[in-house]
What we know:
The chain has 513 residues and is mostly helical. The chain contains 19 helices and no strands. It has a domain at 10-212.
Amino acid sequence: MSSNPNSLTGRSLRAIKWNYLGTVGRILAQLVSQIILARLLGPEPTGLFGYALLVVSLSALVTEMGLSSALVQTSTLSKEQLGAVVSRLLLVAVVASCAMFFLAEWIATALFHAPEAVPVLRAVAPTFIVSALSISPAALLRRELQFRALTLIGLGSYLFGYVIVGVGVALAGGGVWSLVAAWFAQSISACVALNLVARGSFALENPFFTNGLEGFGTIILFTNLVNWVIEYGTQVLVGRVFGPSSLGLYNVTNNLVRTPANHLVVNLQTVLFPTSARVQDNPASLRRAYLTALSGVALVAFPVFTFAAVSASAIVDALLGAKWVGASQLLPPLALAMIPHSAMAIAGPMLNGKGEPGVELRVQIVTALIFVASLIAVSARPLVDIAWVLTAIYTLRCVWMTAEVCKRFHVTAKDLYLALRGSVLLATVLAVSIMATETVVQIAMPILAAIPHLLVQATVGFGAVAIFLLLFPAAFLDSHLAWLLGRILDTTPALARFPGMTRIARIAIRKCP
Length: 513
C-alpha cells in the first residue's frame, strides 16, 4: 500500500491530513469560544448579530460570484485572468459595502422587523472588502493543495479573533459588539496572512475583461445562492417571526452541531474539489474517491450526531446553562440533520470537479422550493417543528444528490450499503448504550450534576463504540475505508502504536481492493 508522495493521491492524502490535523483545534476553539460567548451574552445579543450574519452570508455569495471555485477548477490560469478576477471582486465589494451601510435601516425594519439591528448591520458593512482581498490567495492555495498553510491560518486567525478579542470584549461588557469585534479581528488577520503566504495572488486588471471563468463561476454562484436558501431559510423565518432572542437560541443550538459538521465536510470538500478536477476523466478514480470519502465521513457523523441527539438535555445543561434551556428541544432534530448534511456535502464538490455543476444546481433549486413551501406551512408552529422540517429537507436533498452521484460514478446500492453499514451499526451501539445508562442514572443518581452527567453519557457511549470497533473491525471497515486507513498508516506510522491499530491494519490489508 505504498504510495508515491509526489502523486496526486499522495498530495491529496497529505492535504486531507493537514486539514484534519487543524480540525480538532479549530473545533475546540470554536466550540469553547461560542459556549463562553453564549453564556456571557445570552440569546438576544447573539440574535442581533445573527441578523448581520444572514445579510453578510447572502451578500458575500453574490459579491464572490463563484469566482473562487472557478480559479481552482480552471486547468490554466493566466496573470490577466487573475487580475481581472481580483479587480472585479474589489469593485463589487465596495458597491456591496456602501449598499449595506445605506440600506441597513430598511433591511432591519422591513425584512426582519428588528430596528435594533441597524447599528450592527452598518458596522459589519466593510467586511465585503476584507473578504474580496482574501478570495484569490485562498483559491490559489487550494488550487495547489497547500492546506497546511490554510489550516494554520484558519486556526490562528480564529483563535485571535474569537478566543482573544471576542471573549475579551465580552468580559469587558461589550455585548453584541464583542461579536462584531471578533468577526473583524478574525477576518482581517486571516486576510493579511493569506496575502503574505500566497504571494503573487494580488493583481489588478480591467474588471470587465472577459476571462473565460464566468460560465463556471455563474453556475457555482446560483448553486450557492440556492444552497443559502436551504441553509439559512430557517434562520430568516425565525428572525422575522420570532425575534432576536429566538434567533439567538436557534443559532447557538445549530452551531453546536454545525461547527463539527462543517469542519468534517468542508475540510474534505476543499481537497475533493481540486482533486476531482484533476481526475475528472477517470471514472474509477472518481468512484473510489467518493466511496472512500462517504465511508470516512459516515464513520464520524453517524456516532457523533447520534450522541448529540440522544444526549441533548445533558449537553445543553452542561455547556450552555439555564439561559438556554429551550435549546434542549431544538438539538435533537438539528443534530440528526447534520448526518444527511455531511453525506450530501461530499457529492457537490465531486460533481463540480468533474465539470458538472449544473447537476447540483438543479437538485438545490427543487429542494429550495420545497423547503420554502414547507417553512410557510409551519411558520405558525413552534420552533421545534421548524427544526424537524429542516431535518426532513436535508434528508431529501442527500438522497437525491447521492442518486445523481451514483448514476454518474457507477456506484451501486450494494456499494452504498457497504459504505454506510458500519457507521449505522456504531451509531446504534452508541444510542442503546446511552439510553441504558440513562435509565440506570435516573434510578441510582437522579440529582447528578450537569457536567458529570454529560461525562458519564459520553464515556459510556463512545467507550462502547471504541470497544466494538477494536473487537470487530471487519464489521465496520468496507474496502474503501480500509484502503484509506492503509494509506494513512503508510504515511503516519506512529498511529500503528495505538492499542488495537495493528490488528485493524491487518484487516485493512486483507480488505484493500
